[in-house]
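BUG-353 | component: ligand-complex export | severity: low

The export step for zinc ion jobs runs without errors, but we want the raw record kept on the ticket for reference. Input record follows.
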Amino acid sequence: MKAARLVAFREPLRIEDMPVPEPGPGDALVRVTACGVCRSDWHRWNDDLTWLGLKPQLPMTLGHEIGGVIERVGEGVAKLAPGRRVTVPFVQSCGACENCIAGRDNLCLKGQVAGFARDGGFAEYVLVRVADLNCVPLPDAISDEVAAALGCRFPTGYHAIAHRSGMHAGDWIAIFGAGGVGLSAIQTAAALGGRVIAVDIDEAKLERARVAGAVETIHAVEGVRIARRIKEIADGRGAHISVDAIATAPTTQAGIASLRPGGRHVQVGLTSQAEQGQIPIPADLVATNELEIVGSGPNPHGAYDEIFDLIARGKLDPASLISRRISLSDVTSVFHDFDTFATSGLDVVTTFT
Ligand SMILES: [Zn+2]
Ligand SMILES: [Zn+2]
């Protein structure tokens, strides 16, 4: 089978011929029909996140936004059969640790991420562990490309809004970054009745943000005082919620500074080499205005039924965020686009030969 392998950081992925892996006990072999190119793949390509204790293992097949079809299952797999169409959550959980048992399997203590701890989906086939848990069967109406989008960015944006922000209908929600996660958060917040203010450096992305449901947009060019502008829009008092889907000092700091007293900042983006995990925050503002800062991590398995339901009812439309269908050999050029925030929407690999 063909696979796009990371052999050296920031070098082009190498397309290699690999043996099709054999499913062990509990595993499923998935024939990949679509795999999204996520900013987290780019982080891996950059050797980022070492400050979180991630140890680089090379070579490795990247790709964690996996949509596909069950090809074969290993011993002990009870809920899946060949031919079943599935998506695969970002964290392949163990199902048995204290966080999994508490329903927070996105925080699994023994979780593994494709492309980080095991070979991923930029390949014709991928092995998924604890497959009964980590292969989520899809409704027929979900396309292969959407199955890929549901592997990471869309449910990550959904989780940030639906589970971590504490939003109520009518709230002003400032969302920083209209890339894959940001657009997903915008679409979710709008669907749940939020009034979204989208902030980005790219006017074309702001147009996508408006299509996704933002009622106000701010083009973050030199000289624009973003927090002040958000306060003006949001009743003169500030946003109820800010969501930082980028994680640079300007976005995190403006996100916190744009909140009204008692507001909540949701940190969902991950930093890059410039910040190496550290961003100073306006601490006195946090204290005196009793602001809350919460983290929002990868998508939990339990979110899928909610998302499928909202898609079926026409409230969410992940397909509208997909911009390009590409081949394995195009992935490296998408990484270069991520360098300059030049991607738009979700790029999905659909050609694997
Ligand atoms: Zn991702
Ligand atoms: Zn676990």
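Assignee comment: Attached the raw record above. The longest strand covers residues 28-36.
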